[in-house]
Design a protein that fits this description.
By secondary structure, the chain is an all-alpha fold. It has four helices and no strands. It comes from Anaerobutyricum soehngenii.
């Protein structure tokens, strides 16, 4: 998949789904309750990105929120 921009305004919902799936699959494992991203079993990582997929928040916003809290995805 070649996408020049990951901004909501430049992508379709289907493209955003693929962006998240490809980003989360970089380690090659399943994400549910995985500790690989320092989530420490804190929840479903892919569900954390639903606001991006639904066009509500940019990836940057979500990642900043993740870093500003204890790193747990809820």
């Amino acid at each position: 998949m070649e996408i020049k921009s990951i901004l909501i305004k430049d992508t379709t919902k289907e493209e955003r789904i693929r962006i998240v799936q490809e980003g989360l699959s970089q380690c090659g494992g399943a994400c549910d309750f995985c500790n690989g991203c320092d989530n420490l079993g804190g929840g479903l990582v892919d569900a954390f990105y639903e606001p991006y997929i639904n066009g509500e928040k940019e990836l940057r916003q979500l990642n900043e929120e993740y870093r500003s809290h204890t790193g747990l995805v809820r």
